[in-house]
Amino acid sequence: MKKQIYKNLTFQVLTAIIIGVLVGLIWPNIGKEMKPIGDTFINAIKMVIAPIIFLTIVLGIAKMGDMKKVGKVGGKAFIYFEVVTTFALLIGLIVVNVLKPGEGLNFNELEKGDVSQYTANGGQSINWMEFVTHIVPSNMVDAFAKGDILQVLFFSVLFGVGLAALGEKGKPIIDLLDRLSLVFFKIIGYVMKAAPIGAFAAMAYTIGHFGLTSLVPLGKLMISVYMTMFLFIFVVLNIICKIYGFSLWNYLKFIKDEILIVLGTSSSESVLPRMMDKMERYGASKSVVGLVIPTGYSFNLDGTSIYLSMAVVFLAQVFGVDLSIAQQITIILVLMLTSKGAAGVTGSGFIVLASTLSALQVIPLEGLALLLGVDRFMSEGRAIVNLIGNGIATIVVAKSVNEFDETKSKGALTELKAMKAREVEAL
Asked: Mind listing the pLDDT tens digit for each residue in 95-141?
């Protein structure tokens, strides 16, 4: 029985993360060489994300049949995203104003990184017309090849609606796609066997390349951000869970493997297919999961929102800029837009920050250079909060449109308890 614990994914990933930290600390040069391994694991996941999103959305819409219900799911999801993201921005502003992590820091004495690519031309402003037109792919194959989630999402919804409109004639295609989805989830099962290796490599690279010494000067900011994320999860999201009649703690235990994988890889995308599968097993219908999870990965970034709001005020504190209440309200309004506008863009966090600072015109753009040293160490927290928030959004939307199976949910939790009992016995 004791051998079973070593086969447990949670144990394997946690062990891999610890070993990765030790390798990065003791042999930093070796840690730096681990980057290709970590990148390869993430690429293997990204390889199947687009087809899985396509299949899940198409099958969900086609099987639902009722286009009014599809519209209702999408509408409720977007309202939820905006409300909860606003709460995330607000709690970030409150905590950073109370703890004041930027006070007493001298910009000229702190280590800085090169952020010229983000601050060129006075800040990378977001072209809204370009963003909107980008959602509609000019080439379906190109959208899948690049793995552009928003474009794949748009095409998938259209395909699903078209397939549903065929009625009986579309059933052979639905059956084919149903079988095809089983193949892709089987592939994900094979890839996830390498999750401990991917987590080890990513963590070893992070510690080896950036080093823990870079955390000391901005340690207060890191502590403030992680404290805020903790409050957001166990206060704001916990209240939401209670309102909708499910346990936050049970939910977190159900997705603990995914949380650990994200912790190790710093990427919430690494578990996107698994989260879709997990949310279906937890009781949400395929159609709701297919619409909410992929959309949430672009529009429901609670962890990122917390970090962005705190980072702006932190930089203001470093430069001695006293932001008024009106200016801080402006920060919330700007971030509510810019955080969506940069969805799916590489380095989006810094692009959003540059855009926000440029809009405020009171904080020097070169302040972004301070954040490069600790940004990688806060990315894990942002990704985990984004992951947790999107799962809860899926359950909430599913419950609000009567697309949640309570019996299935209880069965999943019973299975979880049985698995826990086996783990304890194995120890």
From this structure: 999 998 888 777 676 665 555 555 554 445 555 566 667 778 888 88
CA 337, distance to chain mean position in Å, is: 18
d(CA 293, CA 397): 11
C-alpha–C-alpha distance, residues 142 and 419, integer Å = 42
Residue 168 is classified by DSSP as G
CA–CA–CA angle 6, 11, 17 (5° rounding) = 125
Q: Are 315 and 357 spatial neighbours (Cβ–Cβ below 8 Å)?
A: yes
Q: How many CB atoms lie within 10 A of CB 127?
A: 11
Task: Give how far Cα 313 sits from Cα of 84, 308, 320, Å.
Answer: 20, 9, 10
Reduce the DSSP state of residue 32 to 3 states and report it.
Answer: helix
CA distance 134 to 157: 16
- R_g of the chain computed on alpha carbons: 22
Question: Closest Cα partner for 375 from 225, 269, 229, 199?
Answer: 225
Which domains, from first to last, does the chain contain? Answer: 3-426 (1.10.3860.10)
Helix, strand, or coil (residue 401): coil
Global pTM? Answer: 0.84
